[in-house]
Amino acid sequence: MAFRGVWGLGRASPGPRVWPPTPDPNPALQIPQRFLMGPGPGNSDPRVLATQSLPLLGHMHPPFLKIMDEVRQGLKYVFQTESNYTLCVSGTGHAGMESTLVNLLEPGETLLVGNKGIWGARVVDMARRMGVNVVDLKKEAGRTFSLEELTAAVKEHRPAVVFLVQGDSSTGVHQSLAGVGPMCAEHGALLLVDTVCSLGGVPMFADAWGVDAIYSGSQKCLSAPPGAAPLFLSERALAKVRGRKTPVASYYFDLNLVGDYWGWYGSRSYHHTGMVSMWYAMREALAIVAEEGLEAGWARHAAAHDQLWAGLTELGLEHFVPAPEDRLVTVNTIKVPEGVDWAALCKFAMERYAVEIAGGLGPTAGKIWRVGIMGYNAKPANIELVLAAFRDGLAAQGWAKK
Ligand SMILES: Cc1ncc(COP(=O)(O)O)c(C=O)c1O
């Protein structure tokens, strides 16, 4: 009868066996060493990983709140903003995406989505679920929007928010933001930008470019594990969130509440348990970015991109993105030549060199390979390995430059 006392089930009939009991502790967890040179996650900086084994603090303890403040400060630097409204959303890039959309838009308002890859398509899907009126402005994979095209669409549809992806990891394009912020402001729209695979790897000047909201991801150019979505709001964007007529439909992502936990409004109150070890990691990751300096980091990414393409061109491989000015340095897209089995090459790279090279995604599936050059991985030795994998992988398939 003691079981009934403890579990409410009754000792005489403990119920069916619960199986399996626990993960088998023997053998201990073994993780193979891999070079994560796909579109992400990339390898974390060992200094960042080391912080995650530090002892936990309580999520409201003053030393931990200080770490959160330092994360906000580091984010101000990577976003290049004076705005105090930076934080990390608990979750991956999608959490940042969902969080910005659900806070900046009210049901019935219009969102103009610059849709040129899988991320635009996801934003269309998410926003429709929120009862937002979505204008899906599509662009062929591998191309970017011109300021003229965006201006015409904004004038026609009068959106409350315009969404663009800076670095599109499904196609390898880099969307220029030149002039877009001021144009949106002139027409009463907020500009929201996805920087999941670009923040820290290519220039971003949130204030100077008039961007209103940005989300990103920890696991790419910031060299931390997946689990944090850096977020930024301008004063204008915050005013929109604070002045909403309807409550934010998501409790977990409500920036009126989450912002309070991060100290946006002067007070600090519990909203959800802070991701203690993850915020240690972000603090270290942002400190590493600051130590190197943003400009030096952007130059390192660009140099690695040039090194990669010098080698790939010599092998006879070609860019998927036709216009040189549209090419993203952090996620590189490479056309699969006729007669080559792209998946076999990826398998070869992993088995022979422990190098991850990815295939296409969404509109580019089966047509391209994707090589990520992000954060800790943007260094000559890693690029040499990727090139060796391509050289030997293509030779193994009997393919040679014509
Ligand atoms: C440009 C871009 N946006 C959004 C995402 C989604 O991020 P996550 O997979 O971290 O949720 C990714 C992930 O690869 C991405 O590259």
UniProtKB/TrEMBL annotation:
Keywords: Aminotransferase, Pyridoxal phosphate, Pyruvate, Transferase. One of its GO terms (molecular function) is L-serine-pyruvate transaminase activity. Its EC number is 2.6.1.44. Its cofactor is pyridoxal 5'-phosphate. Substrate binds at residue 370. It holds the Pfam family Aminotran_5. The keyword Transferase applies. One of its GO terms (cellular component) is peroxisome. PROSITE patterns: AA_TRANSFER_CLASS_5. GO terms for biological process: glycine biosynthetic process, by transamination of glyoxylate. It comes from Auxenochlorella protothecoides. CDD domains: AGAT_like. This is alanine--glyoxylate transaminase. The modification N6-(pyridoxal phosphate)lysine is found at residue 220. Belongs to the class-V pyridoxal-phosphate-dependent aminotransferase family. It is an enzyme of class 2 (transferase). Residues 59-360 form the Aminotransferase class V domain. It comes from the Eukaryota.
